[in-house]
Design a protein that fits this description.
single chain; 290 residues; mainly alpha
């Protein structure tokens, strides 16, 4: 029983590592305060779920979930190109509300508030990842590949250009860099990894509905990025593990089930305030949150 519970937590941690690393690419390295990231997560989840329920093989649905999310990420970068800071945050938040409204009201496709039940577990080369242990192995492989790609990208010359856009976009333009193209690529790649994280989430939970992808679900993801530190992949991974396991301790304190949810949100808020006061850069951050 305990081992099954730990495997469940490990799967959630691995999926959220992919999701938070993808947000780190846009927010930490490029300086894009994207509050619509949870929408890419939902787009990937629904794309993969709908395709597999229609009979498509998992590997095609998995790849297309990232590609569809990437397309929406690129499209979002076009109208928000000249926005910064709070204005960018509000615009991307509006995008997440639009996606939520579409998922909720396009009942012919998404079944609206009824959600999509019976999402099949992944199957590759005749092997069905039906048990949680095998699914954990699959997610670990995906997170290792994702981490390798994101790390190579951020350590490459292109990653240095991303940081230059974050620190001083005007100076980057003066040096001849196409900042619109750079930010569009960063947002699109970030959305791609959020989409594949959504695919894994949908096939693990086997049921999704629009309430799984609201702005409230973005709060812990955003908190992980801030606590781990902006532009720090190592900090993001550590913060993901800590902030997913920490609220689980509340289950063993003996609180009534009716207050466990609010207590978890209060805990998140207190941690965020303490981090912002005593460690403005997070645990391993290279820049301060502006």
């Amino acid at each position: 029983m305990i081992s099954a519970y730990l495997i469940h937590l490990a799967i959630l941690i691995v999926i959220y590592i992919i999701l938070t690393l993808s947000l780190q690419l846009a927010m930490g390295y490029t300086g894009l305060l994207n509050l619509g990231h949870i929408a890419f997560f939902g787009i990937g989840a629904y794309t993969s779920a709908l395709l597999t329920l229609a009979g498509w093989p998992f590997w095609m649905s998995f790849i297309l979930s990232g590609i569809v999310a990437m397309i929406f990420g690129f499209l979002l970068s076009i109208p928000t190109n000249k926005l910064k800071g709070d204005y960018l945050a509000l615009a991307t938040m509006g995008f997440s509300f639009v996606v939520y409204a579409v998922l909720l009201n396009w009942t012919e496709l998404t079944r609206g508030p009824l959600g999509l039940p019976g999402i099949p577990r992944p199957s590759l080369f005749g092997f069905n990842f039906s048990c949680n242990l095998s699914f954990l192995i699959l997610t670990v492989i995906v997170v290792l590949v994702s981490f390798f790609i994101i790390r190579r990208l951020t350590n490459s010359p292109f990653g240095k250009v991303l940081e230059s856009v974050r620190d001083d976009e005007l100076a980057s333009k003066t040096l001849g860099k196409n900042t619109f193209k750079i930010k569009s690529i960063a947002l699109a790649v970030s959305a791609f990894f959020a989409g594949i994280a959504g695919s894994l989430y949908a096939h693990y939970i086997t049921f999704i509905d629009p309430s799984s992808f609201t702005i409230m679900q973005l709060i812990p993801v955003l908190l992980i990025v801030i606590v781990g530190g902006l532009a720090s992949l190592k900090g993001t991974i550590i913060a993901t593990v800590v902030l997913i396991l920490l609220p689980e301790l509340l289950r063993f304190v003996g609180f009534p089930s009716s207050i466990v949810g609010p207590a978890r949100q209060i805990l998140y808020a207190v941690i965020l305030l303490l981090i912002l006061v005593y460690k403005p850069k997070g645990f391993y951050g290279k820049v301060e949150l502006k």
